[in-house]
């Protein structure tokens, strides 16, 4: 009945109806996880240029990692530093000559004019959760976004691969890295250092909103990061930044300076409508003016550094700012992509449609020239940045729904079909056949994305460990239920391993957790049964999945072989059942 009386779009419909309808859809959705050969074929048909290689791993394909950027970038003297700058809320429209009659971000626009600029780049999520895994790994989305999974499937990213190729890998964020589980995701990828709001010193001014410590502004983020970089003594670096000032609470320093700057810009507006818009959205506009200056100061500081000549900057937005209106559904994902470096041969603007998914293989293609060894096969969803074919792209909205899909010149958004014109303008079309075609494609993507994440089918263990230059010492994957009702339940007993740095991954699922004191124990002994290393890790009561990665250092002993044991410690001996156990020991 509500659909009869409230036939609006999702952007204007009755809130009560929308809440009830979406809740109903959520609770009745099927948990069916069957994945068939036809599902795999339907998914792989979305990528006709890829040569897929494995039935069990639907994403896996051959890749030569072509260096498509070579014609546009002069050779670096050695392995280049990569600086990935993910700017919160950066809309491609902000770096045009005029945004609402003002020059909103002239400094970022100048970088685009002096570098390689893709003006039709798309992020894959309406919120920031999608940007990081898409940019550094070209990864699927899973159920709620890749980083938000409580159990990560094995995968490769620029962080893990460059870490294995003698790069120091770092992440800089002025807020809490727990947000969207960034820290968990990056740590799973063996990042060397995560800098967030807990690492800043007293010289920086805290951003406080409603008595809550939010973090630090972007100028302080950049300033602090350069101090950290100077302490690393690293020959090669991958530095990832995620800005935050242009996000709620939108607090900036030197407020009066930027208010005066905005007033001067407004005074030059000829459009009364634009003037009113800028005044109404003053808080958001001021934050973009601030961020633009912060990026300029950062680049200027880099130009005074000796490593500037050997650095490639990648600048993009996580998504357009959600607080400001967008022209249409597709423009929710329209962000700029800029490659900037003193090694750029000649500035160029590219008009082919690309996405964040295309950066991963493009960077590996570029770095292959400098001795970085990419995996022998790729599971990347994207292609490369010079691909002239319009990609098939699925998008995840802020409700974590994948209901938007771009294919060729057509765009499906929440069951409505549109034709895509220049600069991502849309016009609604009535074409049932094309609507059904895109719906089928979207369903194929959704099903595969969930399947590979939930069943650890992105890449096989052998490819994962080879890509990060490790050797498998022990691997076990078991679906059976294991009962732990004794004080100690051995999971791995006295496994002989070489006395060198070891990495252990353990994960499992459980239905209920009666005793908060139940924990998991890692133990390393010599041949005389002397304990050389011992670590106890708690299992949270409020989660149904446990995943933990531990690095065990080389022990100070002359013995070449040691015994590794893994066990549950259940002091109260209350029944605790686990299932879907996975263990990987690598060196």
Please give a quick description of this structure.
This protein has 587 residues and is α+β, with helices and mostly antiparallel strands. Strands 2, 3, 4, 5, 8, 9, 10, 11 and 12 form a nine-stranded mixed sheet that branches. A five-stranded antiparallel sheet has the order 14-15-16-17-18, covered by helices on one side.
Features:
587 residues, alpha+beta, Alkaline Phosphatase, subunit A, Jelly Rolls, 9-stranded mixed beta sheet, 5-stranded antiparallel beta sheet, 14 helices, 27 strands, 26% strand, globular, disordered N terminus
Overview of this protein structure:
This protein has 587 residues and is of the alpha+beta class. The relative contact order is 0.15. It has two domains: 74-387, Alkaline Phosphatase, subunit A (3-Layer(aba) Sandwich); 471-586, Jelly Rolls. The protein has 14 helices and 27 strands.
- Report the top-level CATH class of the largest domain: Alpha Beta
Largest sheet: 9 strands, mixed
Radius of gyration: 25 Å
Mean pLDDT: 93
Shape: globular
Give the DSSP E fraction (strand runs of 2 or more residues): 25-35%
Head-to-tail CA distance between termini:
62 Å
Q: Helical stretch count?
A: 14
Query: Share of helix among residues?
Result: 25-40%
CATH superfamily of the largest domain, please? Answer: Alkaline Phosphatase, subunit A
- List the quaternary state of the chains: single chain
Second rung of CATH, namely the architecture of the largest domain: 3-Layer(aba) Sandwich
- Overall number of strands: 27
